[in-house]
Design goal:
two-stranded antiparallel ribbon, five-stranded mixed barrel, 7 helices
């Protein structure tokens, strides 16, 4: 039996941080970072059956073209993903009353809809990127036993090509769900490595008042190439989602609206339009 200190429940029986009970979520889940983006998705729904919010974790469940879908805000960063992924998994794979793991496990379909910055000059603002791989530059996932889920040859190539300083931790590479990629892909989608940083400023090469460990890291990542697959974009969630999803047995895929191009210094003239178009694209693909 899992101890109360390890699996924390609220007085109403919902799980601690995300404030949900098993019946509140669908098998198909969309992640967004910003809580205000939840309703930008669910405004397209035919019906909304459930809404709750605790801290930055806002959740709505409803139907879109007959498909039951949950939309949930995760907040920013791998630490928040650690909370959301573990607690969602507990909702479907742990009996919250007996605090025991269920004999038959459920696999969720999780699609992240996020905004991101492109690292390649030929991936323009307002385009869409599907994360073929999550390349984690954060250290959160290293707290788990991850050797059997990672693409070690790609990791070694990245470390060598970028002269990565291992004092910052070993980068990890995890593939996205091929099942969901098949469902959501089209000719208009770019694919590649999505870098997941543990912060927004120094970890992504931004300099304000503080010097950073490797001022040339973004340039090195721009040129990283593994058998023709390149780094497409840099954000703060995908690698953690892919890693925990694979460990827990869930199908995970990240879809990114490119609102900035770090290679040529441009920013979308209408980033909200790009996000709205990606939302409608993803909803229609999921409902097919």
């Amino acid at each position: 039996m899992i101890k109360e200190s390890e699996l924390i429940l609220n007085p109403d029986g919902s799980i601690y941080h995300i404030n949900l009970k098993p019946e509140n979520i669908a098998n198909d889940i969309i992640f967004v970072g910003d809580q205000n983006r939840v309703e930008k998705i669910t405004k397209h729904f035919d019906t909304i059956e459930f809404t709750t919010q605790k801290r930055e974790f806002k959740t709505q469940t409803g139907t879109y073209k007959g498909k039951r879908i949950t939309v949930m805000s995760t907040g920013i960063g791998p630490d928040n993903i650690d909370i959301v992924m573990n607690e969602l998994d507990a909702l479907v794979n742990i009996d919250l009353k007996t605090r025991t793991i269920k004999p038959e496990l459920t696999s969720l379909n999780i699609v992240r809809i996020g905004t991101s910055g492109s690292l390649q000059a030929d991936i323009p603002v307002d385009s869409f990127v599907m994360s073929q791989y999550g390349l984690g530059l954060d250290n959160m996932l290293q707290s788990y036993v991850i050797d059997n889920i990672c693409e070690h040859e790609i990791e070694d190539a990245f470390i060598k090509q970028t002269n990565w300083d291992l004092r910052k931790g070993r980068p990890y590479v995890v593939a996205g769900s091929k099942k969901l990629a098949t469902k959501l892909e089209s000719n208009q989608i770019f694919k590649g490595f999505t870098g997941t940083a543990g912060g927004f400023y120094g970890p992504q090469g931004r300099v304000l008042r503080l010097a950073i460990q490797d001022p040339k890291l973004n340039t090195k990542m721009d040129s990283f190439n593994y058998n023709g697959t390149k780094m497409t974009n840099l954000e703060m969630e995908t690698g953690a989602i892919y890693g925990l999803g694979k460990l827990l047995g869930h199908q995970c895929l990240s879809m990114n609206a490119i609102i900035a191009n770090r290679a040529n210094g441009t920013f979308s003239k209408n980033p909200y339009k790009a996000v709205d178009e990606l939302i409608e694209y993803t909803l229609n693909k999921l409902a097919e």
